[in-house]
Amino acid sequence: MTAPAARPTLARTDGQPILAPSILSADFARLGQEVTDVVAAGADWIHVDVMDGRFVPNITIGPLVVRALRKITQATLDVHLMIVEPERYVAEFCQAGADVVTIHAEATPHVHRALQQIKACGARAGVSLNPSTHESCLEYVLDDCDLVLVMSVNPGFGGQSFLREVLPKVAAIRRMIDARGLQDQVALEIDGGISTSTAREAAAAGARAFVAGNAVFSGGGGSKAYAQRIADIRTEAALGAGVMT
Ligand code: DX5
Ligand code: ZN
Question: What's the confidence (pLDDT) of residue 117?
Protein backbone atom coordinates (compact mmCIF):
# COMPACT_ATOMS: atom_id res chain seq x y z
CA MET A 1 0.00 0.00 0.00
CA THR A 2 1.45 3.38 -0.92
CA ALA A 3 1.33 6.21 1.57
CA PRO A 4 -0.92 9.13 0.63
CA ALA A 5 0.95 11.96 -1.09
CA ALA A 6 2.14 14.63 1.33
CA ARG A 7 -0.12 17.66 1.15
CA PRO A 8 1.73 20.62 -0.31
CA THR A 9 2.34 23.34 2.26
CA LEU A 10 0.30 26.55 2.26
CA ALA A 11 3.54 28.58 2.31
CA ARG A 12 5.04 30.13 -0.82
CA THR A 13 8.07 28.27 -2.14
CA ASP A 14 10.14 31.48 -2.07
CA GLY A 15 9.35 32.13 1.62
CA GLN A 16 7.75 35.49 0.86
CA PRO A 17 4.65 36.63 2.79
CA ILE A 18 1.30 35.48 1.44
CA LEU A 19 -1.17 38.17 0.37
CA ALA A 20 -4.85 37.30 0.54
CA PRO A 21 -7.08 40.13 -0.69
CA SER A 22 -10.54 40.01 0.87
CA ILE A 23 -13.31 40.30 -1.69
CA LEU A 24 -15.49 41.90 0.99
CA SER A 25 -14.16 45.24 -0.26
CA ALA A 26 -14.39 44.37 -3.97
CA ASP A 27 -17.08 45.64 -6.33
CA PHE A 28 -19.64 42.83 -6.02
CA ALA A 29 -21.35 43.86 -9.25
CA ARG A 30 -18.10 42.96 -11.05
CA LEU A 31 -16.87 40.22 -8.74
CA GLY A 32 -15.47 37.87 -11.37
CA GLN A 33 -13.43 40.64 -12.98
CA GLU A 34 -12.24 41.89 -9.59
CA VAL A 35 -10.93 38.42 -8.71
CA THR A 36 -9.28 38.02 -12.11
CA ASP A 37 -7.64 41.44 -11.72
CA VAL A 38 -6.37 40.86 -8.21
CA VAL A 39 -4.92 37.45 -9.10
CA ALA A 40 -3.18 39.01 -12.11
CA ALA A 41 -1.90 41.63 -9.66
CA GLY A 42 -0.09 39.02 -7.58
CA ALA A 43 -2.62 37.87 -4.98
CA ASP A 44 -1.67 34.46 -3.58
CA TRP A 45 -5.06 33.59 -2.09
CA ILE A 46 -8.57 34.99 -2.47
CA HIS A 47 -10.04 35.56 0.99
CA VAL A 48 -13.79 34.95 1.08
CA ASP A 49 -15.65 36.34 4.10
CA VAL A 50 -18.82 34.37 4.87
CA MET A 51 -21.14 36.04 7.42
CA ASP A 52 -24.48 34.80 8.69
CA GLY A 53 -25.99 37.73 10.60
CA ARG A 54 -25.76 35.70 13.82
CA PHE A 55 -22.10 35.11 14.64
CA VAL A 56 -21.45 38.60 13.30
CA PRO A 57 -23.89 41.45 12.65
CA ASN A 58 -23.62 41.29 8.87
CA ILE A 59 -24.69 38.94 6.08
CA THR A 60 -22.54 38.37 3.03
CA ILE A 61 -22.21 35.37 0.75
CA GLY A 62 -22.53 31.60 0.69
CA PRO A 63 -21.36 28.48 -1.14
CA LEU A 64 -22.94 29.52 -4.46
CA VAL A 65 -20.49 32.39 -4.76
CA VAL A 66 -17.54 30.13 -3.86
CA ARG A 67 -18.69 27.74 -6.59
CA ALA A 68 -18.88 30.57 -9.12
CA LEU A 69 -15.40 31.83 -8.20
CA ARG A 70 -13.97 28.31 -8.41
CA LYS A 71 -14.89 28.32 -12.11
CA ILE A 72 -12.89 31.43 -12.88
CA THR A 73 -9.72 31.08 -10.82
CA GLN A 74 -7.05 28.56 -9.88
CA ALA A 75 -5.97 30.73 -6.93
CA THR A 76 -6.33 29.32 -3.44
CA LEU A 77 -9.82 30.11 -2.15
CA ASP A 78 -9.36 30.96 1.53
CA VAL A 79 -12.87 30.75 3.00
CA HIS A 80 -13.39 32.41 6.39
CA LEU A 81 -16.62 31.22 8.00
CA MET A 82 -18.02 33.76 10.46
CA ILE A 83 -21.09 31.64 11.11
CA VAL A 84 -22.58 29.77 14.06
CA GLU A 85 -22.63 25.96 13.93
CA PRO A 86 -20.06 25.86 11.12
CA GLU A 87 -20.09 22.05 11.15
CA ARG A 88 -23.48 22.22 9.40
CA TYR A 89 -21.95 23.92 6.37
CA VAL A 90 -18.28 22.98 6.03
CA ALA A 91 -18.95 20.12 3.60
CA GLU A 92 -20.96 22.40 1.34
CA PHE A 93 -18.16 24.95 1.18
CA CYS A 94 -15.60 22.22 0.47
CA GLN A 95 -17.77 20.80 -2.32
CA ALA A 96 -18.15 24.30 -3.74
CA GLY A 97 -14.38 24.38 -4.23
CA ALA A 98 -12.89 26.01 -1.13
CA ASP A 99 -9.20 25.17 -0.68
CA VAL A 100 -9.03 26.34 2.93
CA VAL A 101 -12.03 26.46 5.25
CA THR A 102 -11.57 28.35 8.51
CA ILE A 103 -14.04 28.17 11.38
CA HIS A 104 -14.17 30.34 14.49
CA ALA A 105 -13.14 28.84 17.82
CA GLU A 106 -16.03 30.77 19.41
CA ALA A 107 -18.64 29.49 16.97
CA THR A 108 -18.84 25.85 18.04
CA PRO A 109 -18.12 23.65 21.08
CA HIS A 110 -16.82 21.07 18.57
CA VAL A 111 -13.76 22.70 17.03
CA HIS A 112 -11.87 19.42 16.81
CA ARG A 113 -14.74 17.66 15.06
CA ALA A 114 -15.22 20.52 12.60
CA LEU A 115 -11.51 20.45 11.68
CA GLN A 116 -11.71 16.72 11.00
CA GLN A 117 -14.82 17.26 8.86
CA ILE A 118 -13.02 19.85 6.74
CA LYS A 119 -10.01 17.59 6.23
CA ALA A 120 -12.21 14.60 5.42
CA CYS A 121 -13.67 16.67 2.58
CA GLY A 122 -10.16 17.24 1.21
CA ALA A 123 -9.75 20.91 2.13
CA ARG A 124 -7.24 22.56 4.48
CA ALA A 125 -8.59 23.30 7.92
CA GLY A 126 -8.22 26.58 9.80
CA VAL A 127 -9.23 28.00 13.18
CA SER A 128 -9.84 31.71 13.71
CA LEU A 129 -9.67 33.62 17.00
CA ASN A 130 -11.57 36.81 17.78
CA PRO A 131 -9.53 39.62 19.36
CA SER A 132 -10.66 38.68 22.88
CA THR A 133 -10.03 34.94 22.51
CA HIS A 134 -6.95 33.49 24.21
CA GLU A 135 -4.48 31.39 22.25
CA SER A 136 -4.86 28.58 24.80
CA CYS A 137 -7.93 27.40 22.85
CA LEU A 138 -5.44 26.09 20.27
CA GLU A 139 -3.58 23.91 22.78
CA TYR A 140 -5.26 20.63 21.84
CA VAL A 141 -6.03 21.30 18.18
CA LEU A 142 -2.96 23.07 16.81
CA ASP A 143 -1.50 19.84 15.42
CA ASP A 144 -4.76 19.31 13.50
CA CYS A 145 -4.67 22.76 11.88
CA ASP A 146 -3.34 23.81 8.51
CA LEU A 147 -3.95 27.45 9.36
CA VAL A 148 -4.56 29.74 12.34
CA LEU A 149 -6.28 33.04 11.57
CA VAL A 150 -5.91 35.81 14.15
CA MET A 151 -8.54 38.53 13.90
CA SER A 152 -7.06 42.00 14.31
CA VAL A 153 -10.51 43.62 14.18
CA ASN A 154 -13.82 42.41 15.55
CA PRO A 155 -15.20 40.40 12.64
CA GLY A 156 -18.18 41.66 10.68
CA PHE A 157 -17.04 44.53 8.52
CA GLY A 158 -14.19 45.65 6.30
CA GLY A 159 -12.35 48.92 6.71
CA GLN A 160 -11.93 48.85 10.51
CA SER A 161 -8.82 49.96 12.42
CA PHE A 162 -6.12 47.45 13.30
CA LEU A 163 -6.16 46.34 16.95
CA ARG A 164 -2.53 46.35 18.09
CA GLU A 165 -3.43 44.52 21.29
CA VAL A 166 -3.59 41.23 19.35
CA LEU A 167 0.13 41.38 18.50
CA PRO A 168 1.27 39.56 21.69
CA LYS A 169 -1.20 36.81 20.80
CA VAL A 170 0.25 36.50 17.30
CA ALA A 171 3.69 36.18 18.89
CA ALA A 172 2.46 33.58 21.38
CA ILE A 173 0.92 31.48 18.58
CA ARG A 174 4.12 31.80 16.54
CA ARG A 175 6.02 30.41 19.55
CA MET A 176 3.53 27.53 19.88
CA ILE A 177 3.89 26.66 16.19
CA ASP A 178 7.68 26.83 16.28
CA ALA A 179 8.00 24.94 19.57
CA ARG A 180 6.04 22.04 18.09
CA GLY A 181 8.02 22.08 14.85
CA LEU A 182 4.90 22.91 12.86
CA GLN A 183 6.38 25.80 10.85
CA ASP A 184 5.87 23.97 7.56
CA GLN A 185 2.43 22.67 8.46
CA VAL A 186 0.55 25.55 10.09
CA ALA A 187 0.20 28.90 8.34
CA LEU A 188 -0.32 31.93 10.61
CA GLU A 189 -2.63 34.49 9.02
CA ILE A 190 -3.81 37.87 10.27
CA ASP A 191 -7.05 39.56 9.23
CA GLY A 192 -8.34 43.07 9.80
CA GLY A 193 -6.91 46.53 9.23
CA ILE A 194 -3.85 45.23 7.37
CA SER A 195 -2.17 47.90 5.25
CA THR A 196 1.27 49.32 4.56
CA SER A 197 1.04 50.91 8.04
CA THR A 198 0.41 47.67 9.93
CA ALA A 199 1.75 44.71 7.92
CA ARG A 200 5.32 45.14 9.16
CA GLU A 201 4.49 44.87 12.86
CA ALA A 202 2.11 41.97 12.23
CA ALA A 203 4.89 40.16 10.39
CA ALA A 204 7.42 40.99 13.11
CA ALA A 205 5.07 39.34 15.60
CA GLY A 206 5.03 36.19 13.47
CA ALA A 207 2.21 36.41 10.91
CA ARG A 208 3.12 35.09 7.45
CA ALA A 209 -0.20 35.41 5.59
CA PHE A 210 -1.98 38.77 5.35
CA VAL A 211 -5.61 39.43 4.56
CA ALA A 212 -6.25 42.88 3.15
CA GLY A 213 -9.60 44.13 1.92
CA ASN A 214 -9.84 47.87 2.08
CA ALA A 215 -6.12 48.43 1.50
CA VAL A 216 -6.25 46.54 -1.81
CA PHE A 217 -9.71 47.17 -3.26
CA SER A 218 -10.72 50.57 -1.92
CA GLY A 219 -11.02 53.01 -4.80
CA GLY A 220 -10.89 50.19 -7.36
CA GLY A 221 -8.48 50.76 -10.22
CA GLY A 222 -8.03 47.29 -11.69
CA SER A 223 -5.00 45.06 -11.86
CA LYS A 224 -2.36 47.76 -12.22
CA ALA A 225 -3.50 49.62 -9.11
CA TYR A 226 -3.98 46.36 -7.21
CA ALA A 227 -0.49 45.16 -8.16
CA GLN A 228 1.06 48.29 -6.66
CA ARG A 229 -0.95 48.01 -3.43
CA ILE A 230 -0.21 44.29 -3.05
CA ALA A 231 3.50 44.82 -3.71
CA ASP A 232 3.66 47.62 -1.15
CA ILE A 233 1.96 45.55 1.57
CA ARG A 234 4.13 42.54 0.73
CA THR A 235 7.27 44.64 1.02
CA GLU A 236 6.26 45.84 4.50
CA ALA A 237 5.40 42.29 5.56
CA ALA A 238 8.69 40.96 4.21
CA LEU A 239 10.58 43.63 6.13
CA GLY A 240 8.79 42.64 9.33
CA ALA A 241 9.39 38.95 8.71
CA GLY A 242 13.04 39.51 7.85
CA VAL A 243 12.70 37.83 4.47
CA MET A 244 13.53 40.73 2.15
CA THR A 245 15.25 39.48 -0.98
C1 DX5 B 1 -13.75 41.14 8.77
C2 DX5 B 1 -13.24 40.22 7.69
C3 DX5 B 1 -12.01 40.68 7.02
C4 DX5 B 1 -12.16 41.99 6.30
C5 DX5 B 1 -10.82 42.63 6.24
O6 DX5 B 1 -14.78 40.53 9.44
O7 DX5 B 1 -12.97 38.93 8.22
O8 DX5 B 1 -11.50 39.70 6.14
O9 DX5 B 1 -12.66 41.86 5.01
O10 DX5 B 1 -11.00 43.89 5.70
P11 DX5 B 1 -9.98 45.09 5.95
O12 DX5 B 1 -8.66 44.64 5.36
O13 DX5 B 1 -10.61 46.20 5.22
O14 DX5 B 1 -9.87 45.29 7.43
ZN1 ZN C 1 -11.84 37.48 6.90
Answer: 98
Phi, psi of 85 (to 5 degrees): 45, 55
The pocket around ligand 1, CB under 6 angstroms, is made up of 22, 24-25, 47, 49, 80, 153, 155-156, 158-160, 191-194, 211-215
Closest approach atom of ligand 1 to CA 160: 14
Give the global pTM.
Answer: 0.96
Per-residue model confidence (pLDDT) at position 1: 46
CATH of residue 60's domain is: 3.20.20.70
Residue-range definition of the domain harbouring residue 119: 18-241
Number of domains in the chain: 1
Question: Quick check: 110 and 86 in contact, CB under 8 A?
Answer: no
Question: What average pLDDT values come out for the chain (245 residues) when binned by 10 residues?
Answer: 57 94 98 98 98 98 98 98 98 98 98 98 98 98 98 98 98 98 97 98 98 98 98 98 86
CA distance 159 to 144: 31
Residue 7 placed within a domain: no
Q: How far is the CA of 97 from the centre of ligand 1 (A)?
A: 21
Which residues are registered as beta bridge partners of 26?
none
CB 142 within 8 A of CB 180: yes
- Residue 113 CA to residue 118 CA, distance in Å, equals 9
Ligand 1 geometric centre to CA of 181 (Å): 29
